[in-house]
Amino acid sequence: MSDLDQFRQTVHAWLEENCPPAMRTPITREEQVWAGKNKVFPNQDAKLWFERMRDKGWTAPEWPAELGGGGLDERQAKVLRDEMKRLGCRTPLFDLGIWMLGPAVLEYGTEEQRQQHIPSIVRGDVRWCQGYSEPGAGSDLASLQTRAEDHGDHFLVNGAKIWTTNADKADWIFCLVRTDPDAKKQEGISFLLIDMDNPGVSTTPIELISGESEFCQTFFDNVKVPKANLIGELNKGWSVAKSLLKHERKLMAEIGGDTPGPSFSPVQAGIEYVGLDSSGKLRDHGLREQLVSHEMAYRAIGLTHFRSFEERMNGVADNNVPLIMKYVGTEESKRKEEVLMAILGQRALGWYDDEFNADELLTNRGWLFSKALSIAGGTSEVQLNIIAKRVLGLPT
Amino acid sequence: MTLVLNEEQRLLKDTAKDFISRVMPVSALRTLRDQKDALGYKREHWQQMVELGWASMVLPEAYDGLDFGYMGLGAVIEESGRTLAASPLFSTVVLGSTIIIEGGSEEQKSALLPGIAAGEISLALALEEKPHHQTTGFATTAVADGDDFIIQGKKVFVLDGHSADQLIVATTMESGIGLFIVDASASGIDRRRHHLIDSRNTATIEFKQVRVNKSSLIGDAVQGQNILNTAMDYGRICLAAEMLGAAKECFERTVAYLKERDQFGVKIGSFQALQHRAAKMYIELELSKSVVLDALSAIDDKRADLPQLASLAKASLNDVFELVTNEAVQMHGGIGVTDELDIGFFLKRSRVATQILGDSSFHRDRYASLCGY
Ligand SMILES: Cc1cc2nc3c(=O)[nH]c(=O)nc-3n(C[C@H](O)[C@H](O)[C@H](O)COP(=O)(O)OP(=O)(O)OC[C@H]3O[C@@H](n4cnc5c(N)ncnc54)[C@H](O)[C@@H]3O)c2cc1C
């Protein structure tokens, strides 16, 4: 048996033993465990599951073991992900620190910065949020205006960020700030970590179409930030930002992950809500056509994820393939939600109402949420620009 | 399951690319068309392909085959798609020999397979009878008459049908589907070649009371449908590989044009309206590539979900080939609709290839049914 097969068996056995049965059911939004100083656990099982995974470093399986991570290589990490998926294990910890900031600190941070932040991210001690966008700087991120002035031992930060997801619940924020107003757009930007407890930091929530208010505006009013919180070189924050965006896009491309949604697949929903005719076909042939188009695309995307992984493992990676995944993943997720809405018909339209069951109510929340996917982390249009220029080499 | 080619397969692909671009560029097909060539492909090209081992690649070693697998053959076929190269590879090796390998008797195998491997025997599958792909319920019949069968019916859209040495005919028999191997020169067979838009070979073949010995039945009527299904699925997957190569080539030519053509004082490739459409084509091609590789590897691994993958691959490539060829013509502007430019050859081939072994709506319907809805 190969080492990897051996590893798979060990992982499988460990998960069987340590993942409580209640943690193997589809997760709801309320049950997600988010990192933070004041973590909230929906129940004892969630706490147990989180602690066990944390102690193995498997909240961040690929990070160095000496910094608290799991120390797994890419193949092993995939085995872990696959086995978790197979058993239906929930993601034990949710945090932008794990998904986005951590990899950037590992790549660009100093030894002190790694020691300070990486272990605490693995343990989920700090909840992070992302301060990139500003009212005047969205797709054109490099035109951001939030200023950080050099005051000897610290920066003085002034400005406003927008669309900062969960800023009101976060402990720390990673920010792009302008440190040289005279330099060209991309060249005067730095990457700064800011403790939200600092005096002068404030947030206000923004309500979304899904009825939730994950978004905030975040204001900085003469906020003092120690210089030790600068990641990477001064005025070179753009490269850190881009590297981090790569991780964000990869994350967003992983369709069908652990995001909460109705418990049925589109096909199951079709059979239940539309029904089959005497020849075993979905009764509404238009809907059937939509459904099969989606299912085919979905399978093609899954295969492309796998191909890209295999190409990397075999040293024949086409580095362009990952660039398409954010676009296809999010666009197809939107299509899936449209198909589900159509399949459920009126049953998908309830807002707050006992008449509708939980799956039905989740369907329209999922549909509304999906609209954000092709905007967050770089819009679909911007992804297409990137492919046209970087992959196809089309002229500007 | 693997979605990357191994060292050997990559080498094979490079060799194929080199050979095909050198020996059989699109201009070779253009010449065949312009000269109204009677055979429809060049015999010496086919011989060279045979010498490269392509005809024997998926045949069992016991019959002079190389047993190299479909990942390898698919890579070759993909490259042949880049220049729309005309040869009997698909009809003889993919469709024909699969039926013999899957259902043939020992005698049939040893009579035919070594000849196929050596490029001495070509086959054609006489399947379709209607304007749309048909997999069962044939009007062509085979009726027992003593030790013989009498075949009666008319087949259309038979790929390489006018030039094949042996025909495999799908018929309705009392107890199922009968696949017969018939010498193309047998009496009662009337073949008419057609010149289709893609300049490749098809024929209408009439079987008028053709008498064959029962030894020419492949397998039996109970297995007939399964054998045929397997061959059709292999065919769909390999054809998808060819379409992938053709679509890629057509796309690359178009991107090159976007970089070279000036209008309004800039390269047309700088227009976002065109950039986004080009990026979407690229995305679709990448997805198709994964689908084709998975389907080819599913043949080699004899995976149970092969029918689904065959339908997925064929539907995907029908759609992407149509998209890419339409966009290619549009993005080339006026020159795109001239015969002088090769783009039109790709456009025409795409529509023929779509009809072979099922269009997208056929395969979406099939995929949904296979998935239980
Ligand atoms: C769910 C969600 C969570 C988010 N979380 C965060 C967060 O935590 N932190 C944070 O900093 N930001 C966050 N964002 C913000 C996100 O990064 C921006 O919304 C995004 O970059 C788009 O910017 P914008 O909203 O200003 O739109 P705009 O840039 O104004 O774009 C408007 C429209 O114009 C199009 N457009 C713009 N430029 C071009 C171009 N060059 N070519 C073609 N079309 C173009 C866009 O594609 C879009 O359709 C989040 C967004 C969402 C939806």
TrEMBL record, chain A:
**Record's keyword terms, sorted:** FAD, Flavoprotein, Oxidoreductase
* Hydrolase in keyword set: no
Extract the SUPFAM superfamilies matched here: Acyl-CoA dehydrogenase C-terminal domain-like, Acyl-CoA dehydrogenase NM domain-like
Q: Which residues form the Acyl-CoA dehydrogenase/oxidase N-terminal domain?
A: 4-125
The Acyl-CoA dehydrogenase/oxidase C-terminal domain, residue ranges: 235-392
Q: Which InterPro entries does UniProt cross-reference here?
A: Acyl-CoA_Oxase/DH_mid-dom, Acyl-CoA_Oxase/DH_mid-dom_sf, AcylCo_DH-like_C, AcylCo_DH/oxidase_C, AcylCoA_DH/ox_N, AcylCoA_DH/ox_N_sf, AcylCoA_DH/oxidase_NM_dom_sf, Mycobact_Acyl-CoA_DH
Cite a single Pfam family from the UniProt record: Acyl-CoA_dh_1
Q: Residue ranges of the Acyl-CoA oxidase/dehydrogenase middle domain?
A: 129-223
> Is Flavoprotein there in the keyword field?
yes
Needed cofactors, names only, are: FAD
User: Which Gene3D superfamilies does the UniProt record give?
Assistant: Acyl-CoA dehydrogenase/oxidase, N-terminal domain (1.10.540.10), Butyryl-CoA Dehydrogenase, subunit A, domain 2 (2.40.110.10), Butyryl-CoA Dehydrogenase, subunit A, domain 3 (1.20.140.10)
Task: Give the UniProt family note.
Answer: Belongs to the acyl-CoA dehydrogenase family.
Q: Which protein is depicted?
A: Acyl-CoA dehydrogenase family protein
Please give the organism: Zhongshania arctica
TrEMBL record, chain B:
The UniProt GO MF terms for this protein read: oxidoreductase activity
Query: Does Flavoprotein show up as a keyword for this record?
Result: yes
UniProtKB keywords: FAD, Flavoprotein, Oxidoreductase
Residue ranges of domain Acyl-CoA oxidase/dehydrogenase middle in the record: 135-210
Please report the name of this protein according to its UniProt entry.
Answer: Acyl-CoA dehydrogenase family protein
Residue ranges of every copy of the Acyl-CoA dehydrogenase/oxidase N-terminal domain listed in the record: 6-120
* Chain ranges of the Acyl-CoA dehydrogenase/oxidase C-terminal domain: 223-366
In the record, the note on similarity to other proteins reads: Belongs to the acyl-CoA dehydrogenase family.
